[in-house]
Fold this protein.
Amino acid sequence: MLVTVLFYTFATILVAAGVGVITSRNPVHAALSLVLCFLTSAVLWMLIEAEFLAIVLVLVYVGAVMVLFLFVVMMLDINVEELKRGFTRYAWLGWLVTGIVIAEIVGVIVQRRLGLDVTRGAAPLPPGYSNATELGTALFTRYAYAVELAAMLLLVAIIAAISLTLRRRRGLKLQDISAQVAVRAGDRVRIVKMKSEPRP
């Protein structure tokens, strides 16, 4: 009974936070609403005993990705009004995606069970069960090649991002570390002696 109450409570908060993400006019408020979405999603993961996924969701998305989003939004000083001018051009695509999502939700509600026996809950796990151990075993045995492929793709993406950042562009100021280290105080500071002048 308590698990059901907690589920509906946090699910309601999650839906409200999701609505806040898409309806908020302030980008910072939208990002904070997305943080609340991730936190409530982590609680829902905890309710189904997926502790590792809940911790990863909080540490990676809330602790790293969303902090990066907030820094980008606050530091870039984005002109929201200029972005909104071209928003209506893609409104049809948004309505199309919205219709597809609503149709899928209605289909799930109509079908309800989808071939599963929803009258029984999940089987209780043994006391020594570790979600992280099971997930790690699956990743590095059955899905080892997929994990290595994903790692290589991320490595290529990191190298490409660094290469694009370091490319030579007009007006780009680059640091010359060797020149900075080799500089002498006499080249930077000049002491000038002047005679004192009488007060007028």
About this structure: The radius of gyration is 28 Å. The first helix runs from residue 2 to 23. The chain has a mean pLDDT of 81.
